[in-house]
Specification:
The chain has 395 residues and is α/β, with parallel strands linked by helices. The protein contains 14 helices and 17 strands. It is globular and about 60 Å long.
């Protein structure tokens, strides 16, 4: 493979919606990836919080090989065992009574919006079709999900979007109280905002938000696409607050890098949906859900979650110890940490490549650390050493 030719062909044949660095990744091992020139990078991004088990994990590879020997696709016109098995596992280890599978996080959000509206139609309140989201939110890029995403840059070229969305201030109950009306179908929130800068919702705020939604008759939707499935050191990010939603959207790590999303919901929400009112051709296919069950069983193991908690606390501690005038704040939970800078995070990300670091950002000035959940303390030490040197070189 000629890397330069490949990069030239990418610019020629692909829609230019991504700004990629000038190297070609070819393989991975553990928490490292390698490019075509043999350079090694410590992965602190995990494919944007997706590759929970890292790269070339023996168990995951075996699960994929086993799944490939069965059915790859049947559509949702027929029963398949892997789909039911994964749904059962998700229900048994969550607040939910029912699951609907999708292919991605943004599809899970779109489905959650439909389910919320239909819930109120069934209850005789069809005027409840609007939504309350939060400043700093990110819920996806399709038209409904984009309407809930607080970003002028993302929204402006694609208006008009879905109407009826009001943005409240994150961690501000009075702001939410003012935003909810008798036309509000649901309030949607990330228990830890990801793209918005890695801001955890306060536990007391989520508890008060749950009570407020119950009082006002609005559903509560949690978007745990990035912060769920072990990322914060508990299986579900909302467990820290002790409250549960009516609906929850999942995706990123659920099948270890293969595309899948899921909508989890209570029975009262699920019972509002009837045959033919929502669907997907590929969602919840037997191959994907077979792999997803393996990944979910690994992630949901209490020892695995204890490891994420321990290493996450160590990462937070080590990042806080870095003596750099560029660091304004370190925040987050588990292996989802944001470091707010006084310089553009893109500069740090790009400089990181030279030191063998794969970094990503959140908004303009936050470096986001969402490494594979199999990160060890030795990897944290390597990360902090390299990150410190990067900061020393950034003016």
């Amino acid at each position: 493979m000629n890397p330069q030719q490949l990069m030239d062909d990418e610019k020629k044949y692909l829609a230019q919606t991504y700004a990629r660095p000038p190297f070609v990744l070819t393989r991975g091992e553990g928490v490292y990836v390698f490019d075509s020139e043999g350079r090694k990078y410590l992965d602190c991004a995990a494919g944007i919080a997706v590759n929970a088990l890292g790269y070339n994990d023996a168990g995951l590879v075996a699960a994929i090989q086993h799944a490939a020997q069965g059915l790859l696709h049947t559509s949702n016109l027929f029963y398949t065992e892997p789909q039911v098995a994964l749904a059962r596992a998700l229900v048994e280890k969550s607040f939910a009574d029912r699951v609907f599978f999708t292919n991605s996080g943004t599809e899970a959000i779109e489905g959650a919006l439909k389910f919320a509206r239909k819930y109120h139609v069934e209850r005789g309140e069809p005027q409840r079709k609007n939504f309350v989201a939060f400043r700093g939110s990110f819920h996806g890029r399709t038209m409904g999900a984009l309407a809930l995403t607080d970003s002028e840059k993302y929204q402006a070229p694609f208006r008009p979007l879905m109407p009826g969305v009001t943005f409240a201030n994150f961690n501000d109950l009075d702001s939410v109280r003012a935003a909810i009306t008798d036309e509000t179908a649901a309030v949607i929130i990330e228990p830890v905002q990801g793209e918005g800068g890695v801001y955890p919702a306060r536990d007391d705020f989520l508890r008060d938000l749950r009570a407020l939604c119950d009082e006002r008759g609005a559903l509560l939707i949690f978007d745990e696409i990035q912060c769920g499935l072990g990322r914060t050191g508990k299986l579900w990010a909302h467990e820290w607050s002790g409250v549960t939603p009516d609906v929850m959207a999942l995706a990123k790590p659920l099948a270890g890098g293969l595309p899948i999303g899921a909508i989890l919901m209570t029975e009262r929400v699920a019972s509002a949906m009837h045959v033919g009112e929502h669907g997907t051709t590929f969602g919840g296919g037997p191959f994907i859900t077979s792999v997803g069950l393996y990944v979910f069983n690994r992630i949901s193991d209490p020892q695995f979650l204890a490891h994420v908690n321990e290493v996450g606390n160590y990462l937070l501690e080590r990042l806080t110890e870095i003596n750099s005038a560029h660091i304004k704040e370190v925040r987050g939970r588990g292996l989802m940490i944001g470091v707010e800078m006084d310089v553009e995070a893109a500069k740090i990300r790009e400089r990181g490549y030279a030191h063998g670091l794969l970094l990503i950002q959140a908004r303009d000035k936050v470096v986001r650390f969402v490494p594979p959940l199999v990160f060890q303390k030795t990897h944290v030490d390597e990360l902090v050493d390299k990150f410190t040197r990067v900061l020393a070189e950034v003016e």
